[in-house]
Each structure stands twice: as structure tokens, then as C-alpha cells.
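Technical annex B. To support the medicinal chemistry partners, we prepared a structural model of the target in complex with adenosine-5'-triphosphate, based solely on the information shown next.
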Amino acid sequence: MSAISIDALQHRWPGQSTPILSIDNLHINEGDRFFIQGASGSGKSTLLNILAGVLTPSTGQLSILGQNFSQLSASARDQFRADNIGYIFQQFNLLPYLSVIENVLLPCHASKARAQKATDQYGSPSKAAEYALDSLNIPKPLFHTSVMRLSVGQQQRVAAARALIGNPKIIIADEPTSALDQENVGHFMETLQQKCSDIQATLLFVSHDKQLSRFFDQQLSLTAPKQDAAL
Ligand SMILES: Nc1ncnc2c1ncn2[C@@H]1O[C@H](COP(=O)(O)OP(=O)(O)OP(=O)(O)O)[C@@H](O)[C@H]1O
């Protein structure tokens, strides 16, 4: 099955003379690792928001895992996203008042399907969270401390554990390496790819950094169109 299928998609923000996004045709198969590259302002976040169902494109068709997004209500799209998409944010978006393990468990509160998968595989969501943290080299004594006490690299790995728990079919990673130093970037890329293979997830990875394309076999380059200065 196709993980993502886009046909004649365009998005134009109010006041723009030319659509920021214009994608004739894009098909990403389940299990693929796909790199989306583009300079600042080229529309990467706009595309991710469309793929996550947060934003409706101006025109065109979008199917995720065979589901036509335009046929879903906003609340059905929210649930579909919680069940099927693990999201790693550029600034990690960990909740500072929750412990490390509580942050990892958040998707299991939003999605019964992911809580069930975590329970089926590991006995309980908490056990699945512990496994994910352990396999991402977060030391056990840190599991119940505040995320604020972790290094940037550790916070990034906690954010990855949160995206992976309950085996979502798609992982979207939005510039997840921009806060890491060069050595940690390589480690993080290899670990993320391995984890996505383990759970057979499709990986969509977004970055302005062209050098990261070497970790992927398919890519899309976005370029900001010239806007009419009169508008
Ligand atoms: N909510 C919005 N309303 C109007 N215009 C927007 C909105 N969000 C983004 N844009 C415009 O769309 C264009 C692309 O923005 P977008 O954030 O998608 O780019 P990006 O490639 O993710 O950039 P960056 O790497 O800097 O985050 C920009 O010109 C931006 O001003």
C-alpha cells in the first residue's frame, strides 16, 4: 500500500501570488525512507502540516495510508494522526512538567490503538516506553526525572522514543538534527533509521541540510517560488 499519495496538490497562503507548494505527483510506499529538502521559506513546514492533516491544501488530493484526507472531518483527521503518525519536532516539544517516561507515554493517551500495540508487544505502555528509552540509550535512573535535566542529545532521543511508541506506520521528523553537534547527527540518523526499520515505519525526514540526503534513497527538493512584489 502507498503510505502517502499526492496528486496535483497546491497550497497558496493568503496574499501570495504564486502557490508556495505545487506537487504534481508524489507516491511514497510503506517502509520507504524519504528526504524532503529545502531552504528556509521553501514550504517544508507547510507540506508537513498538510501531510499531518493540520492544514488543508488549497487544491489537490492527498491520501495517507489509503485514506483520503479530504473525506475526514477535522476531529477524524486528529485521531487518524494520533493513531498513525509519530512526529519528531525541531525543538522536540517535550512537556517540561512531565517526567521522561510520562513524555514518552503521551501518544498512548491520545491513541487507544497505539496503547494496545504497546501492550500487545511489551505487556503495558509503560514497559514499551522503558524498552524504547533503553534502546535509545537513555540511562534508567533518568526515566522518572524531569526532561529539563537531560542533555540536548538525550532530549532528542526521548522525543524519538515518544514518536516511535505504539509502532505508528509513519514517522515524520521535522529538522530533528538542527540542535545536535556533527557527531551526534550521524548517531541519531543511524539510530532513527534502524528504529523505523524495526517497526516497519515509513520515515519522512525534513531538513534544509542537503548533506543528510546521503541517508535516504528518495528525496524531494522544495524551492520557494518568486512572489509577485506588487501583491
Ligand atoms: N500561516 C501562514 N500564513 C501565511 N503565510 C505563511 C504561513 N505559514 C507560512 N507562510 C509562508 O509560506 C512560506 C513557506 O513557509 P514554511 O514555514 O512552510 O517554510 P519552511 O521551508 O518550513 O521554512 P523554515 O525552514 O524557515 O522553517 C513563507 O513565505 C511563509 O511566509
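Notes passed to the chemistry partners:
The longest strand covers residues 2-11.
The CA atoms of residues 3 and 30 lie 5 Å apart.
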